[in-house]
Amino acid sequence: MKRPVVALLASALATAVVLSGSLSLTAAAQDSSDATIQIGSLYEPQNLDNTAGGGQGVTEAFDGNVYEGLYHLTDSGEVEPLLAESYTVSDDGLTYTFTLRPGVTFHSGKALTSEDVKFSIERVFAPESQSARKSSFGAIASIEAPDAETVVVTLAEPSISFIYNLAYVWIVNKDATDLTTAEDGTGPYVLDGWTRGSALSLKRWDDYWGTPAANAEVVFNYFTDATALSNALLTNAVDIITNVQSPDALAEFESNPDYVVNNGASTTKEILVFNDRVAPFDKVDVRKAIYSAIDRAKLLNAIWGDKGTLIGSMVPPTDPWYIDLVAENPYDPELSKQLLADAGYPDGFEFTLDTPTYDPHPVVAEFIKSELAKIGVTVNINPITADEWYTKVFQQLDYEATLQEHVNDRDVVWYGNPDFYWGYDNPQVTAWVAEAEQAKTVEEQTAKLKLVNEQIAKDAASAWLYLYPQLVVASADVSGYPINGLNSMFPAYTIVKQ
Amino acid sequence: MAHYLLRRTTILVVSLLVAMVVIFLLLRALPGDPANALLSVNATPEQIAAARAQVGADLPLHEQFVSWFLGMITLDLGTSFISTLPVGPEIASRLAVTIPLTFLAFGLAFGLSLLIGFVAAYKADRWYGAALSAFSQLFIAIPAFWVGILLISFFSLRLRVLPAGGFPREGWSDPGAALTHLALPVLTVALVMAGSLSRYVRSATLDVMGSDYLRNARAMGSTMGMAMLQHGLRNGAVPVISILGIELATAFLGAVVIEAVFALPGLGSMLLKAIAQHDYPNIQGILFVSTLLVLIVGFIADVTQRLVDPRLRGRTQSS
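Predict the joint structure of the above. Result:
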């Protein structure tokens, strides 16, 4: 009676072998410009509109691929003109006049005009906008479109980051009716299909104004489990993993000549965030004491091995105002005990650490707990979900300390906002941040922000533990993919597969 | 029988209505804010308020319920707060993965458990009967995701004969590819389900083997095989049918972990994500559909039991 079952299983296996064999044969016959690139990612878009809560996933899939901006951020962080051919700025730094590139059309066929640009920028800071960049455009007083190729933006005060910020604004067709489940951009790909929970596919668009994409199709395959994603790369179901989150998987790829592990420049920082409004974290010495009690090199090594970087401040090495401030708050438990005593806590104290339940925060929390126990500080770990974090920590500010990762570049300016969730309130820093934004030159801006950088490190405004590595793992027969993943972008139009 | 069917159907509909109210109220009683999923760390207070308005969290409760209920009557399950996609079509495309997975696994588990359970009981005194019994206990103890990982490790990574996960974008328009991708998940779920099902089959068979009517049938000249088939089967089936109904229902949403391990776009992972984001329309839609399916499976199990066992038919209550 057992035989029929075994025979059935055996024939099913045989069929599977034949099927997988025939599939790989067809793949080998493709010409590289007709290739389909399979990308694996953990970040599925929530919807297709980055001003309506689309999330990190839609930036990864669409930025530069489906939608373009007036300017474009390259993988090495430079700002290049894209849909804006050129611009002039008035002497007082308040009026920017952009000339649009001619001959650009949207995927629907409509020609790009200045009205579309005006619409696109305005929707970022509109009241109902959920864009993460909304607050960057607070300085805009008005936008005009005097003729089809010219856009004039008037600012209320000078903003040296304005051009840089424009690189994040997607230029969309103002006549589009549905931007959350459909798209209408100017980029080298059109949206071919999105099967939720499974994959999003982009197809090369033949009427693109610029150089056509180097591949015919790009498919973003979405996974919820990092191991399943690694397995997909190992079995060649995907060609590239955009951002490796699980260090354990690396070992299999590093020693394997069929794969390449790329270590790029990251901007994601793991931070022990103090609520600077609340005792005892309102005292600089207490914060410095805690910071110096944690052996960050050991932590980083435990989590990422030989990858990742130590940082002493909010600024990653790729920002122009980076200074190596790791030595500002060195690992020195004796110094910690001294600082605590000076601050009035010779016997230590107790606090609650609100810890998000997803990796790596629980591991980091346990490490911090054991490190701080050595200087007499008791940590109570309170696990909370990402959702609770938003409500309790971010909005209600009801916490003593928490752990979080912050992914943006150029975010040191948040320390100039005393209402930001960590409550760091230093009027000098706030003044420097405002002055930096109104600087006339990039050098002036950089100088001012370097002062900010040094000050927050001296004050240990937060305890910046380490910088995540930026790891992109790919099959050895694929090239031309971005390795820095700046701000979660993944432009796919130069990817070539042999 | 017709009278019973009518009554049973009415109970089903009423249960469904009660479930809808409970789902709706329980969701809103949970802490957490649907607006949070739309926000980022730079969110200003205006953005937070706008997010709440966008998800309709500022409307009075009874209005929200009435509009959802009326929508359900017309089979319009609403629109997701987060993705703005209609809930119904997305559930349908997820069901296209979860239903085949569940039913294929169920079918395989059913076959395996009948085999294993019967042999384990009938040949309990032989070594292979005892071994099968121990083997089925092993599969009850092992977590499903571990079985899945083992199978992936062996068949996908080592032998390279089956994919490690995922589901083809084209769905079922290429049935061969779809079935290949479902092969390991189905096997995983089936093995674990068969572990517990076979215990029930085994104990039902042992009951039948020790029964008076079987001994009488043999005494009257029947062979063991004929006696088991003609009398044992229907008697043993009744408790097993109840268990089958429960296992099928739990397998349906319980496949969430399997979906994560194999990266399948099924209903379980949609529910998990919707819960994390407090996406009420999605959660309500999925819970409604799964409640309906569980109620239907229960209905079928009850009716089948009555058909199989004539002693149940005369009563006013199902057993």
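Residues 207 and 421 of chain A are 46 Å apart (CA to CA).
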